[in-house]
Amino acid sequence: MANQVFNFGAGPAMLPVPVMEKIQAEFLNYNGMGVSAIEISHRSKEFVAILEAAQATFRELSGVPDNYKILFVHGGARMQFAALPLNLAGRTATQKCLYFETGNFAKLALKDAAPFCDVKVVASGAATNHDRLPPYSSADIDQDAAYCHITSNNTVYGSQWQTFPDTGAVPLIADQTSEILSREIDYSKFGCIYAGMQKNLGPSGMAMVVIREDLLGFASEHTPLLLNYTELDKDNSLTNTTNTFAIYVVKLMLDWLKAEGGVKVIEARNRAKAARLYALLDGSGFYKGFVQPEFRSIMNVTFNLASEELEAKFLKEAGAAGLYALKGHRAVNGIRASIYNPMPTAGVEALASFMEEFERNNG
Ligand SMILES: *Cc1c(COP(=O)(O)O)cnc(C)c1O
Q1: Which of 4, 52, 39 is nearest to 237 (CA)?
Q2: Residues 4-35: b if buried by 16+ CB within 10 A, e if exposed
């Protein structure tokens, strides 16, 4: 039986039904081996083939150049918040690391980095409660910094970088957790990108790290082995027993995206999905979009209603109508529709129709 609801949860997020069906179909007997994919050694040739296929398909879909390494790292996105300075602050004598504070995860990232480097906040959107990306001057991108970090899509607030800052010689690093492979991006502009898997890539608890070769080799001696990108690269991410099931699901997700037509196709679909909801917000005095229009995310659509009571009623009735997990993050309250790659147009259409009807009944 397929899913009976549309899942708008921010993460772990929905997976495409064909991916889950494939997992189910081969769960007891992977590839005629008579065992499950989760029962085989991470060093077996069959698992290594899964891992390498995931890397190859990711490279093909993303267009990441050959001089970037694709790693699978434990601990989700937030484990990388500390791993980044441990691996990279030593690039420059200053140990200075630049951060854009554009939301909840951006703030957590710089907080976790602070014990391991000299954090400098380039700009912060806190003054307007992150309803936009803050203005900044390129003069603030100190060229003696080890790297500059952005959160390319701010999951909690629903804002997104539309164009990326020019950081000159300073490697740009992006937390792409809530948008990886959702739009075409020129990866050659980045030194490193990373993403927890549970939003666009698969199960929770691991991250994908894509790092330019020349940024390896700077890890502090205090870096735990399992967070050391240079060592992980040497072992092709198999330093210890990795989360084989997660990587297997990522491979299936990437195969699914490729079969859908790849990033260009999914981007057009994502933009149309988001446009449907934003047009509804803009045409209504009833719903109020949280983020200023020019910074809106195509992945997380956030909005409020006139009162908390009305929002509670909205959530209750939406739930009853099969629209699951629309409650906003506690930092913003209100409603958040997470419409990642797997969310079909029909799901967004169902939400939009529900919103129109709710407005008619309550406006
Ligand atoms: C969800 C999210 C995280 C947290 O990921 P974990 O895997 O739970 O650590 C970090 N950054 C962004 C941008 C996110 O959306």
Answers
A1: 52
A2: eebbbbbbebbbbeebeeebeebeeebeeeee
Q: Give, in degrees to the nearest 5, the angle at Cα 184 between 179 and 185.
A: 85
Q: Which class is domain 23-259?
A: alpha beta
Which residue has the least CA distance to atom 13 on ligand 1? 177
48 CA distance to ligand 1 middle (Å): 26
Judge whether 222 and 35 are in contact, CB under 8 Å: no
Query: Is the pTM higher than 0.90?
Result: yes
The pLDDT, as a whole number, for residue 4 is 83
Residues whose beta carbon lies within 6 Å of some atom of ligand 1: 11, 76-78, 105, 151, 155, 175, 177-178, 196, 204
Reported as a pLDDT band with limits 50, 70 and 90, residue 1 is: low
Amino acid identity of 117? C
Average pLDDT, integer, range 258-284 = 98
Sign of the alpha-carbon torsion through 169, 166, 213, 220: positive
CB distance 161 to 178 below 8 Å? no
Share of the chain above pLDDT 70, in %: 99
Residue 30 contacts residue 37 (beta carbons within 8 Å)? yes
User: Rounded to the nearest 5 degrees, what angle is found at the Cα of 100, between the Cα atoms of 69 and 205?
Assistant: 50
- Whether residue 3 is predicted with pLDDT greater than 70 in this model: the reply is no
Q: Which atom of ligand 1 is nearest to 103's Cα?
A: 13
CATH code given to domain 262-362: 3.90.1150.10
Distance 77 CA to ligand 1 centre (A): 5
Q: Looking up tokens 């948008």, which residue turns up?
A: 179
CA distance 85 to 69: 18
Residue 173 has pLDDT above 70, yes or no: yes
> Residue 162 above 70 pLDDT?
yes
Give the three-class secondary structure for 203: coil
Write down the residue that tokens 């909840």 correspond to.
104
Residue 151 backbone dihedrals phi, psi, to 5 degrees: -105, 105
Same-fold call for 23-259 versus 262-362? no
User: Is 274:298 a contact under the CB 8 Å cutoff?
Assistant: yes
Q: How far apart are CA 202 and CA 215, in angstroms?
A: 27
- Domain locations along the chain: 23-259, 262-362
Which residue's CA is the closest to the ligand 1 atom numbered 3? 77
